[in-house]
Each structure stands twice: as C-alpha cells, then as structure tokens.
Amino acid sequence: MTRLNQKKTPLFDALKSYIDHSVVPFHVPGHKQGHGLKELANYLGERVFQMDVNGMEDLDYSNNPTGVILEAEKLMANAFGAQHAYFLVNGTTAGVQSMIMSACEPGDKIIIPRNAHRSTIGGIILSGAIPVYIQPEINDKLGIAMGISEESLKKTIKEHPHAKAVFVINPTYYGAVSDLKAIVRTAHRHELVVLVDEAHGAHMSFHDDFPLTAMEVGADMSASSMHKTSGSMTQSSVLLLRSDIISPEKVRQVLSLTHTTSASYVLMCSLDVARKQMATIGDQLLEETLGLARWARDEINTIDGLYAFGKELIGTPGCHDFDETKLSVHVAGIGYTGYQIESLLRKEYNIQIELSDMHNIMAIVSIGDNKSNLEALVNALRDISSKTERAAVIHSIAIPKSPEMIVSPRNAFYSPKKVVALDDSIGEIAGEMVMAYPPGIPVICMGERISKEIVAYIKLLKEQNCELQGMADPLVNHLRVLGTS
Ligand SMILES: Cc1ncc(COP(=O)(O)O)c(C=O)c1O
Prior knowledge:
Helix content: 25-40%
CATH topology of the largest domain: Aspartate Aminotransferase, domain 2
Structural class: alpha+beta
Oligomer: single chain
Distance between the termini: 60 Å
CATH architecture of the largest domain: 3-Layer(aba) Sandwich
Strand content: 15-25%
Number of strands: 20
Largest sheet: 7 strands, mixed
Shape: globular
Mean pLDDT: 95
Bound molecules: pyridoxal-5'-phosphate
Low-confidence stretches: none
C-alpha cells in the first residue's frame, strides 16, 4: 500500500479557509458562529462555534463525500492500512451497528462473544441477524472475561456451518486480546466475515509494541474509537473496511440509513488532526505513554494487596496478547471492591478512573498523560493500601450457562412486554437485557428463557452490589418479559 502524505489535513485546512474568509452564514446551525448562544460562546471561545458549520460545496458532505471529507477519509484508511475509512460522529456504537448491518441480512447467524458491548444488540435488532453466542474465556482469579479461543470458534462454526459472520473484541476493556490472526484465518476458511470491535484499540496501529489490529491481520471490517485512545473528540470514531466480501458501496448505503445528515465539523476535524498526529508522531507519543504505563504498573505491583495485571497474562486462556495502556488493577487483596476504590479515588484524591467492577479498577493511560498524573494515582493507591486493614478476599461468583434463545432479539424487541416481579419471571422470555459487571457478560438477553438459576444469580449479584445494566428498573426488582398483562 502506498503511503500517502500523512502530514496533510484536508478537512481542517478547508474549514480554516472558510473561517478566514468570514463568509456570511445564511445556513444552519442557527447559533451563527456563536452569536445566538453568547453564554456558551463566551465560555468556550468563539473559534469552536466558527468551526461548527454544516455541509457545503467547499467543505464537502459527509453522507456522500467527494471532496475534502473523502480526501481526509482516504488518509485515515491509509494510516490504518484499510481500503476505505468512514468518519463516524456517533461513536463506535454506530460503527458496530453498521458492521453488523453490512454483513448480515435478516435471519443470518452471527457468532458473537457473550461479553460484546451492548451496541451489538442494536446491530442485531436492526439487521435482524440471529446471534450465536460464544463464551469468552474467564479468568477466575481476576473475575473478568478475556478473549475467545480459536478452538471455541472452530467448535461454534461446526455447530453453525452456515453462520455469516464472526464478531471479535480487540482488545477487551481490560486489555486482553484474542489470537485475532488465527481467528481471521479460521473464519475466512469457512467464508465467514470477520468484524472487529476496536473501540479500545484505536492507538494500536501506531506503535509496534501493541497487539495486532484488525486491518493488520486481514479482518474485513473494524470500528475504532479514535476518541477513546487516539486523541480525537468524544463521539468521533472511524469505520474501516478491507474486504473482498463486503463492498464499500454497501457500507455507504448502510451508513446513509443511520448517519446524521448534519455531521459535526468540529468532530470530523478532530479526526483529521488526530489521524495526522498518530500517523506522523504517534510512535513517539506512544513510546512515552507505554513508558508511563509500565512505570505505574511496576510501582503498583510493589503495593501490598494490589495486583496491576499485564503482559504476564499472555498465554493464559483468552489472552494471546495484552494492551499495556489499560492499567487494570485487581484490588480484592485489600478487601475493597473496585467500586469502592473508584469512589475513594474520586472523593479523597480527586482522581477519576475509567472503570471499576467488583474486583478491579481500570485507568486508561493515553497520549494525553504525564508522569505527575501517574504519580498521583500510584500515591493514592499506596495511601489507600496503607490505611486499610486487610479483609477477606471477595470471591467471584460462578456464572450460570447461557440461557436458551426462544425468540430472536429483533422479534423480542418488537413484541409486547409486561413487567413482572423478579421472582415471577422464572420461565418467562426476557424482554430486556441484564448485563453484569464483573465480568461484563449479559446474564440474560432479550428473547431468552429466564431460568431459576438466572434469577438466583441476579439476586446474588444484587447482594454483592454488582453493577447491573440494561434494564428499565435499575434495581432489578422487576423485569420486562414478553407478553401482555
Ligand atoms: C467494547 C466496546 N465497543 C463499543 C463501544 C461503543 O463505543 P462508543 O462509545 O465510541 O460509541 C464501547 C464503549 O465503551 C465499548 O466498550
């Protein structure tokens, strides 16, 4: 692939030129460069409002780009080693949904890890695909879901030989990476399309010490949250395509169904500039980031009761490689839950981490960090540990096996629902999803039969104050099930 001139920022340059020409704006947005919303413009500064414009000839149109947006997308594709890139302004959520809709038609089976992000359910409902869940490997000691194994994929393909696609998470929230190369090889041998959720892997293409990415190992599509780890602004992501099976026209057609006709130029420009930065000096920036993450991990591992896990997990089930910028710390050894540590860090030390679960916390280390940020975290954890009396280690709870799917998620979504008390839901078909952290695996998905074991498990999770997501009733005293009352 010929390397394009990655120093260029065509979209950003066109927008700067538009602003420099002081064009009289008889177009939306109606704030007219901030004059219509003075309080916010005074706080943010007028520049961001000047940049907040809409599609026009010299600035191109995001739904059908032929000018500077197309040029910026080509540079993005080139930076990732993809054939095509599509700017997204509704996050990787939109990317995940578009990938599933591009690969699957109603009734097509898609093999999907049980711990996939909730956006996959949206993709499944919109496309009418039928999910075939594959269990990720579980690290019992840490209480988290890891990647999937090639063996379990082979077994699932054997059981579902006509499946259309396989969906992979690269890396998981905690940094674990499946053997993506082997998965792609196996899937392609069986003519399955490989779709990769790289919400947490947008930086991995730009330094050699990171796990391999979807585009590097020949997957068909990936969705990458540039905003999470590659410097662009929140909601800006990119959809990447390199496939003999899915055509760029199909992807554009799918995007035109859900993509706004008023994509934010502020967000798209942030993609253009972030791509330039990563493609030109990302290697240097990430070298420093890795240095900080490695330093902090080593320091945390000298603190009594804490375990900052990392590359030593490679070779354990579901962990073929590891992204070291996910600074995940197992905190059960000091007798606190991850939720408690997150709250303590925020309230007592003014530190906000990315994620906590029953046993772990996770801090994202990125190109925006510096040594003093990491020192603050390490010192706070040292302080917490020194003030804590060791309590009994909290053990993980065994997850019941996946329930039986009775109705497809799409049919369940469109079916009438009734609300029943949790105890009365046994035997009913779920009308909503219940997702538990840890380990981030849905306990029940819509369309599945609710068993006695599932209800007992939900009660146990509630007792342990686990975070449960996806339901209308956040306390899960009631569940929505199929049927009318
Ligand atoms: C694994 C995974 N996939 C997809 C998403 C959705 O990404 P976005 O927030 O960019 O829409 C997330 C968000 O946290 C995620 O964790």
